[in-house]
Amino acid sequence: MAAEGPIAEPAPLPEYAGITEPMTVLTNLVLAVFALALSARLGYAAAADGKVAAFAMAGALMATAISALFGAVAHGVDPRTDAAVRKRFWRLALYATGLIGAATVASVAFFIAPRGAVRNAILIVAGVKLLAFWAAVTRRPEFRLAAGDNAGALAVLLAAAIYVWVRFDARAAPWLVAGILVSLVAGVIQARRVGFHRHFNHNDVFHVVQMVALYLFFRGGVLLGDR
């Protein structure tokens, strides 16, 4: 899924109607609404069909929406007047990204392991991973920690998707792999700070590209079945 983009340096920041980084706020809000809609659709379908793996994927989409919403607030608050509020919502956005990774790994537990010890072990790893990440960002609320946690979760998902693709010709696998690859492109854009304009920077491009990845994950989630 998506880790929230880092907040910019305190000055100078584009501002409109008292909102700093207005385009980043807007793209974050669009991302949040889009992820929420996909989560609701996937969660409803998963609950109706009793597919726990798909329901966990819907949880990852929901966590993405929450992270994007907190990120919108963090990017929109002026650090010159409300630095404490900005930092507080940035930390909340980071906590939410940990839920994305945990839910993603949890989904793997249900579609790759039939039952028993393997499934339980993967779920334990997801829980421990989440607690370790929360402890780390509590000490150092840095974007690179969120990026690393998200990359680890996507690596687990990629390995699982390739396995079920090769072993069982799972229809969900190509969509999941495509989503991971698009997420990788989004990460490169973020890391290399590729932007088109001062008012459409690397964070904004990242959010737009990540929406494509979310749709691919959604399509994969719809086809995802428990084993």
Element pattern in H and E: EEHHHHHHH
Helix and strand composition category: mainly alpha
Lateral arrangement of strands in the main beta sheet:
1-2
Which descriptor suits the 3D outline?
globular
Distance between the termini: 22 Å
Mean residue pLDDT: 91
Largest sheet: 2 strands, antiparallel
How many domains? 1
What proportion of the residues is helical, as a percent range? over 70%
* Residue windows where pLDDT falls under 50 for at least 5 positions: none
Gyration radius, in Å:
17 Å
Tally of strands: 2
Q: What is the helix tally?
A: 7
In percent, how much strand structure appears in the residues? under 5%
Q: Note the quaternary state here.
A: single chain
Walkthrough of the structure:
The model has no long low-confidence stretch (mean pLDDT 91). It is globular and about 55 Å long. It has helices spanning 22-49, 52-76, 83-112, 116-139, 143-168, 172-192, 202-222; strands spanning 15-16, 19-20. It has one domain (18-222). A two-stranded antiparallel ribbon has the order 1-2. The chain has 227 residues and is mainly α. It is 77% helix and 2% strand.
